Amino acid sequence: MLLKFTKMHGLGNDFMVIDGVTQNVRLTPEKVQQLGDRHFGVGFDQLLLVEPPDDPDMDFRYRIFNADGSEVEQCGNGARCFAAFVLERKLTGSKRIKVQTKGGPIELRVNRDDEITVDMGLPKLEPWEIPFKADRQSITYKLEVEGRDEEIAVVSMGNPHAVLLVDDCKSTPVERLGSKIQRHNRFPENCNVGFMEVVNPGEVNLRVFERGVGETLACGTGACAAVVAGRLQGLLEPTVKVNLPGGTLTITWKEQDLPVLMTGPTTRVYEGHIRI
Ligand SMILES: N[C@@H](CCC[C@H](N)C(=O)O)C(=O)O
């Protein structure tokens, strides 16, 4: 079968986006891995599949696969690309798009063609919701890594995140620490690990070691989780500029019972087709 796709990115977090509304697409984890291979396939951090919704109140179903073939609950940068994709392909004419994901519903708002705000929903903080093994909910937890206690915050943005404060993002051993925390036995479904340096209450630097991929140039849900963790620790203002290696996102989280809003750009790189 000849499969049409679009290659896109959000701040260098790159995606193969497939229209599963007008094409009949069947993917296995092995197929996703082959397509995700940067030498033998298309190459991407995540594959995004647009499908018709199961829920009549929603406009689309948005499925997300990491490059290792695992299907996951949420992808923030992907959500912005998803909105640009469905508009460009005229799968919808609406600039407010309701999307069903494995991690819960989200709403996409298109401000300008190249800048999209996503209502990422409420962050979840109870340990069982992450999931994270702990007796009770707390703002931070001690986690033993390499024989030392690291202080982490845990947040679910639909998908699981650990967030650590660091003095200097650039010199942090993101891959070494990230891979240990990601697979720590207190995270039964593994997690994405963010290393956040607070520049001032309105700006942070962030690097994220993503589950199923490794360090990426940007992680939208990671940026949301970092701002939630920083706000809960009294370090950040309601709106924060999050500088990632691939560029900057604006994250707003005003209050506990309000959703997290993420604003940032999307880029279409090329369109292609591949025999699968
Ligand atoms: N790049 C993403 C997150 C993708 C999913 C993540 N790796 C996971 O396994 O949960 C983003 O922009 O949020």
TrEMBL record:
PROSITE patterns: DAP_EPIMERASE. Substrate binds at residues 13, 46, 66, 76-77, 159, 192, 210-211, 220-221. Its EC number is 5.1.1.7. It is found in: Cytoplasm. The active site is at residues 75, 219. Homodimer. This is Diaminopimelate epimerase. It comes from Parendozoicomonas callyspongiae. The lineage of its organism: Bacteria, Pseudomonadati, Pseudomonadota, Gammaproteobacteria, Oceanospirillales.
